[in-house]
From TrEMBL:
Name of protein: Semaphorin-7A-like isoform X2
Pfam families with a match to the protein in the record: Ig_2, PSI, Sema
Gene Ontology process terms (BP): axon guidance; integrin-mediated signaling pathway; neural crest cell migration; positive regulation of cell migration; regulation of inflammatory response; semaphorin-plexin signaling pathway
Species for this entry: Clarias magur (Asian catfish)
A GO molecular-function descriptor: integrin binding
Upper classification of the organism: Eukaryota, Metazoa, Chordata, Craniata, Vertebrata
Domain Ig-like, chain residue ranges per copy: 363-448
Length: 490
């Protein structure tokens, strides 16, 4: 894997194999106005580089540092230890290498530390770094690193790190395997000319580049987000100003099958806003690039580049309640419906409770979108007695609870990935009548679909029409029978 990091000043850094056969993978300054620099090979063991970034310090360019994130082979060979661990390393952008006698043309500021993402109370560690995204701030100390990890048991997690906390480890931790006094300047300190550093300072960097202390996330008791049923492979984070003029972070996570999850971060908790598939069929995401200003996410698949519009407000355009329940900071309810023009619109990102939609101050839509409006006209089916049958309504929100109401009763639905089903093994007289598919979310009830089931007409009805109706139901009957077999065996 090759990672490049170009700078506006013309310098080019690369994490790439040193030799054509792909061996000796290392991070180096490859081209530009400064001297080329290499790594000391013993510093890393079978590394896989994930990403690199610079923390810009316009008022203190001499102390600008490059951060490198990677996985490497774990030196702990015990059976219970994960063979891989995650690391963060740091070098000074102004590094010129050492003098002729030690680390000449090699980084003199290289330090590394263990990057931890875990549930300490349960001794569960997510050791395998997969991807990172840096949410930069004008003050570098306020920048955040969102890191995506996987585990040996196929779970994934997101941990968030403060760049200030991360830097403090490099500034204050002891050096692993070194017990003597730490010289001045401290190893890893950025200086004007590293070739004039004291030999003792350089020697510690050469022989003991690892920090004793580990880098822990902001939320120390558990990862910020854990998924046991989705394997995530890529991450990006957008910062959005909503209609309440507050700023919200939105995580964009790609699954191993190529779908994109848009997830709200609020009060250290998560809420999945939407799931979007950009490919026909499962396909791994190879690259992902966020264009925050255009509110677009560029997603690369093998042989295909797709663009996800992050302002898909039309997905919640059915009603004010649907728009608010989505808790999507890119959208708000206005007189034009659910739109990306959030100024003056209504939204409730904090809780998603749509009570504001029923107030007199809520804007009324000028013209209803016919394609998104709910039809109060029920769908009519004529089904003979004894036939198996099923009813279906779409699942618009996985946060809602769906049920079927018939006569005076209510039953939960049989769920597929995208539909709520009502299964009838064999039609009886009791099964005829009206059916309502109802969703309930945050004290808001909505009828999603209406049906009417009737028996065949009296004998005077045209036989041909009845025959056609029954023929149309045969594929449904077969499918329903199969569903009942699967459901009964489960």
């Amino acid at each position: 894997m090759c990672t490049t990091l170009p700078f506006p000043d013309g310098d080019l850094y690369a994490a790439a194999p040193l030799y054509p056969d792909g061996t000796s993978l290392e991070f180096r300054r490859q081209a530009g106005s400064q001297l080329k620099l290499w790594m000391n090979e013993p510093w890393l063991t079978e590394p896989t580089f994930i990403s690199a970034f610079v923390a810009s310090r316009p008022n203190d360019p001499m102390n600008e540092k490059i951060y490198l994130l990677f996985r490497e082979r774990n030196s702990d060979n015990s059976p219970e230890a994960d063979p891989w661990i995650s690391r963060v390393a740091r070098v000074c952008k102004t590094d010129k290498g050492g003098p002729k006698r030690i680390l000449q043309n090699i980084w003199t500021s290289f330090l590394k530390a263990r990057l931890v993402c875990a549930i300490p109370g349960e001794s569960l560690y997510f050791n395998r770094l997969q991807d990172i995204f840096v949410l930069h701030s004008d003050n570098w100390k306020h920048s955040l690193v969102y890191a995506l990890f996987s585990s040996s048991w196929n779970a994934t997690a997101v941990c968030i790190y403060s760049l200030a906390d991360l830097d403090e480890i490099f500034e204050k931790s002891s050096f692993k395997g070194y017990d003597d006094d730490i010289p001045t300047p401290r190893p890893g300190t950025c200086v004007r000319d590293s070739r004039s550093l004291p030999i003792q300072t350089i020697r510690i960097t050469k022989n003991h580049p690892e920090m004793t202390e580990w880098v822990h996330p902001i939320q120390k008791h558990a990862p910020f987000y854990i998924s046991n049923n989705q394997i995530y492979t890529k991450i990006a984070v957008d910062r959005v100003q909503a209609s309440d003029e507050k700023m919200y972070n939105v995580l964009l996570l790609a699954t191993d099958t190529g779908t994109i999850h848009k997830i709200l971060e609020h009060d250290s908790k998560t809420f999945i806003i939407s799931e979007t598939s950009l490919c026909n069929g499962p396909a791994p995401v190879l690259s992902m690039k966020l264009h925050s200003e255009k509110r677009k996410l560029f997603v690369g698949y093998r042989g295909q580049m797709s663009v996800l519009d992050l302002q898909r407000c039309q997905d919640y355009n059915t009603s004010c309640e649907d728009c608010v329940l989505a808790r999507d900071p890119y959208c708000a309810w206005t007189e034009n419906g659910c739109t990306s023009q959030t100024e003056g619109g209504i939204q409730n990102i904090a809780t998603g409770v749509p009570h504001i939609c029923s107030t007199n101050s809520a804007p009324k839509r000028r013209k209803r979108d016919a394609s998104s409006s709910f039809s109060t006209t029920p769908i009519v089916h004529i089904v003979p007695k004894g036939f198996p049958f099923y009813l279906s309504c779409p699942i618009d929100s996985h946060h809602a609870t769906y049920s079927w109401e018939h006569r005076d009763g209510s039953e939960s639905c049989q769920k597929t990935k995208s539909d709520c089903l009502y299964l009838i093994p064999a039609i009886t007289t009791h099964d005829y009548g009206n059916y309502s598919c109802v969703s309930r979310e945050r004290n808001y009830n909505k009828i999603v679909k209406l049906y009417q089931l009737h028996g065949p007409s009296e004998p005077q009805s045209p036989n041909r029409a009845l025959k056609l109706t029954v023929q149309k139901q045969w594929p449904l009957a077969i499918f329903t029978a199969l569903l009942f077999v699967v459901h009964s065996s489960g």
